[in-house]
Amino acid sequence: MGSRSKTDLAYIAGFLDGDGSLMLQVKLRSDTSRGVRFMATLCLYQDTRHEEPLLWIRKVLGIGYISHRKDGMTELRVNGFASIQEVLVKLRPFIRFKIVQADALLHACALLKLKKISELCEQELRTLVDLVFVIRNSNYKSNATLSKEVLLNRLGLTP
Q: Per the database record, which ranges form the Homing endonuclease LAGLIDADG domain (predicted)?
C-alpha cells in the first residue's frame, strides 16, 4: 500500500462511507467445479468532472484501477481478496456507515484468500453465502437476482 497518514485513511474511509460500495459478488462460472466464483470489490465513485480525489486515493492506497463509465462517472475499483483485506484493515477504524459491510467483507476475504472454492468445507461455504446476503442487504440498492436458495443449490448445499 502507498504512503498514507491516519488523516488520509480517515478521509478515504469517509469517501467510502459516502460515495463507495463494498461488494461480495457471486459470478456464475461453468468452468469451475462449484459452478460459481466469489469476487470481492471495493469501489469508489465520482463524477468524471471531479475525478481528482479518486486519482489521489489510488496514489495513497497504491492499488486499484480507474475506469471511466459512459454515464459520466469515474470509478476506482480494488478487486482481490488479499488486496481488499489489506485496504479494509487500514480503513476499518475510520469507517462509520458501512461497518457491517466492511466486517462481512473482511470475514469473506479471510476465508477466500486462504483456500480455493473447491477446498472450502460445507460450513465455510454456508458462511460465505450468509456474508453475501449480509452485504447485499446492507447496501442501498442491489439489482441481484440470485436468491439464497439458488446459490446454496449451485454450491451443492441444501437450503
A: 12-89
